[in-house]
Amino acid sequence: MPELPEVETVARQLDPLIAGRRVRRARLLDRRLGKPPVASLLGHRVERVFRLGKQVAFELSRRGRSRFMAVHLRMTGRLIWQDGRRRVEDQHLRACFDLDGGRLLFFDTRRFGTIAVVDALEEVAPSGVDPLSAELTPEALAELLRGSRQAIKAWLLRQDRLVGLGNIYVCEILFQAGVAPDRAAGRLRRRAVERLHRATRDVLTRAIESCGTTFSDFQDARGLTGSYQRYLTVYAREGEPCPACGRAVRRIVQQQRSTFYCPGCQR
Ligand SMILES: [Zn+2]
User: Fold this and answer.
1) Among residues of the chain, what percentage have pLDDT more than 90?
2) Exposed, middle or buried by CB within 10 Å (0-12, 13-18, 19+), for 175?
3) Contacts of 191 (CB under 8 A, 6+ apart)
C-alpha cells in the first residue's frame, strides 16, 4: 500500500515529466470512480504535481485560473506517464489523460483509488498535519500527543493527527526513536517526543530518497519499484537479530496489524 514516501516519489517524478503540458482529452474508464468533472480540465495546463497528504495533487490552470485534481492511490493505484516510446498494458486502466506528447494513465487493480477535481485545494486537504511540513515541530507534536491514552503505534497510524504514516514506516520510526509501540501516546516524555519527531523525519526522508518501499506491487511513475525495503531494520524481521543490540526482533499484533520491534532498544 503506498504510504507518504511512495506518494511523494510519484509526485516528484511526474512533476518534471508533465508540468507545462496541456490536457487534450480526459477519460474515466471505471464507473466506480463516480463522476469527477475531468472534462472540465480540457485545455488546462499542468502547472505542478505535488503530494497532498497521501494524494498525488495536480495544479492546472487556464487563463490565469487554477483548478486541482487529487488522486488517491489507496491500495494499488498507480500513475504512469507514457510518452509514446514505451508501451504499457491496458489491464486495470481506470482513467486516461491525453496531454501534449503523451498520456497520464491511472491503473488500479483493486479499484479503491479515487479522483477528485476541485476549485480549491482546501476541499481535498487532509485534516491531519503533514509530518514533513515545517508546521510539525517537536512542540507541535507534543501538543498533538497531549492527553492521548492510545498506544503510540496506533496513534501514529491515525490519519487525523499526522497524515500519511502506515504500518511499515511507523514500525521503523518507533525503532529509530527507541520508543516501545505500546507506550501511551500522551505519556511520552519530552526527550522521547523529540526522538520521535526526528525519527519520523529521518525515516520518511530516507524512504523518499530510495523512491519508497516495494512490498507487494508499488510502482513509481516510471513503472519501477522502490528500494527502501533494503534498509528496513525491524519491519517483517521477526526473530532476526536487532541491528543495534542483537536481541531477536519481536512481533506483536496491535489493532489487527503486525508490529515489529526490539524489546531491548525500545522502552
Ligand atoms: Zn535492539
Assistant:
1) 84
2) buried
3) none
Residue 16 annotated as catalytic:
no
> Each residue of 153-204: pLDDT tens digit?
999 999 999 999 999 999 999 999 999 999 999 999 999 999 999 999 999 9
Q: How far is the CA of 257 from the centre of ligand 1 (A)?
A: 21
Out of 21, 51, 54, 78, the active site residue is: 54
**What is the rounded CA–CA span in Å between residue 175 and residue 235?**
9
Q: Residue with C-alpha cell 527507541?
A: 178
pTM of the model: 0.88
Q: Please report how the helices 190-209 and 138-145 are oriented relative to each other, as an axis angle in degrees rounded to 10.
A: 110
**153 counts as catalytic:** no
DSSP string, 77-129: EEEEEE-SSS----TTEEEEEEETTEEEEEEESS---EEEEESSGGGT--SSB
189 flagged as catalytic: no
